[in-house]
Structures are given as structure tokens and as C-alpha cells.
């Protein structure tokens, strides 16, 4: 946010259809991709707005990104059940158009800006603390997928191609090994053996999808827990951060949520002995998710949910290790072995899941 002076941000805010004069534009939230600001106007309507600079280096197809968000939010708005005293904008992200009626605007120095209504009186958690929270997160993403299940996935643009394509990630790893620009391959042979010994299993979802056995649906693709807003009673209210909404398989969303919920330590914890799965949170999330999703998922989709839980930490480990071998040019690192430490945590998570696979599958079976 420090890259942008106040005048640039305020001028961007003035390009949107707001009631009253702008009296305050201040940094908001802790997102790592987009720069976000809270905008308050002179009209005391009880509504504030979020102004965001879209990171077009991460999301170069801004047209496609905003196209996706518009289609998805319009569809969700028709499905949401609004309680007394609430508005649709309390449960679904609402885009504020520009003065020209567009979804976003650009400034003179090439930045892209958009605006949403700020959803007030909500909270999010970076770390799941209770089974109630885990269950509500599961319900939120299950409901999100259910409400979009009748929306044609072909209408949605793939803004980040191959994002969850494990073959693509493994091909990148093999290319990195072949070049070995930093002479690091010899240091990680045990990690490579772990990865390639599980390669066939980790292609299960992709192979089934390629055969047409799994339906391609509209998925969120970034289901970390802080992308669910809860109300003051820790009940689900809204799924946010729709930048990565794309066609995909439901197990990807389930797997990424589990990856971030049941690991009790940080992603870069050096002592991997601390990685002991929180299976009660897994059970709570799965039960909440299937409470909403059970009715629209196919039997095979339900059976692949645990495969997704294995795949997502595996694939993230592949990405960290690829970056380590290539010289740490993609992920920000604080020390030479940072990406290797991250790799270790993800692969240990896979290993711990393998020890508990029977329990994980039984939870899904009991739910369905």
C-alpha cells in the first residue's frame, strides 16, 4: 500500500458511483495480493465500501477476472436467503460500478481498480480454533458450490491456467531437476523420491476428470478459512475473495480447505514432529460441508473428497520444492532453506494423512 500515495487512491475512489462526497480512504485488511482500502462518504447510510487495486501481475486477465466475479455474484444473489433486517449484500459480494457503468477502472499509471460494498459486523479467522468454526466454514463452501451447481462452468474464464493441474506442476518440477541451476537436486533426493512414488495416486482426480467421470463445476480455488466471513455468533455469512473462481473439481476446494484447517502449525514450521492432524476439525468441516453439498454431488465426487485432501498439500509441496530447486524466484523467502522447510511441512502433512486415511474416508462415508 505504501507504493500508492493518498491522492492516487482518492482519485481512483472518485471513479465509482458513490452517494455523497468521499471523506475518508484508509488502508483496510491484511491481504497479500491486492491493495485494499475502506472508503467512507458523507452520506450516513450505514454502508461503507472497499476499494481494491487489482494485482494485474498476478491476475493479468483483469477482464476475465471481473467477468467471472460478475457472473458468479449475480447468480448467488438470486439464490441467497435473506433474513429479516439483512440485505443480499450482507451475504454476497456486491460490485459497485464505475461512473461509466463498468466493472473496474484504470488510472494514468496503469493500475486497475474495483469497488465492493463492505460487509459489516463480520469476522474472519486465519486459524480455525473450534469445531463450530470448522463446521461453519464447511457449510459456507458447501453452500457456495451448491448455489453455483446449476451455473454453466463454460461461462467462466480460467484466469490462472493449470492452477490445480498436478501434471503441470510435476512437469515443472522435472524441468527444474533437469536444469538444476543451483545444484540443489542432490540435496533433496529423499523429497523427490517421496513425490514421484506417489505420482500416480495424485493424478486420480485429474484422470477421472479427463475421462468425463467427474463433472467440471465452478469452484472457489482458494478455500483457506479466512475467505469465509462469519457473523458475531460464528455462523457463516459470506464467502469472499472470488478472484480465483474458475472451472474445477469440487475435491480441489475440499482438499485445500482441509490442508489449511487440520495442520496445527505454521506453513514454515521447522520442527515437523509438531505436525499432528487435528482430526476433530477435519470431521467438523467435512460434516458441515456435506450438510450442504451432499444433495448435488455425484457419488464419485464424494468418494474423491479425501483424494483432494491428499492432493492439495502434495501439490503445494511440489510447488515449494520446484521453487527451491530453481533458486527461490517465485515465493518470498527469508532464508536459503525457507522453501525446503515449507516443502517438508506439506509432505509431512501428506504422510500424516496416509496414517489416518481409514478414519478420513469413514467420516465421509458416515456423512453420505
Automatic annotation (TrEMBL):
Signal peptide: none annotated. Pfam families: APH. SUPFAM superfamilies: Protein kinase-like (PK-like). Coiled coil: none annotated. It comes from the Bacteria. Residues 25-261 form the Aminoglycoside phosphotransferase domain. PANTHER family: AMINOGLYCOSIDE PHOSPHOTRANSFERASE DOMAIN-CONTAINING PROTEIN-RELATED, SLR1880 PROTEIN. This is Aminoglycoside phosphotransferase family protein. It comes from Sphingobacterium ginsenosidimutans.
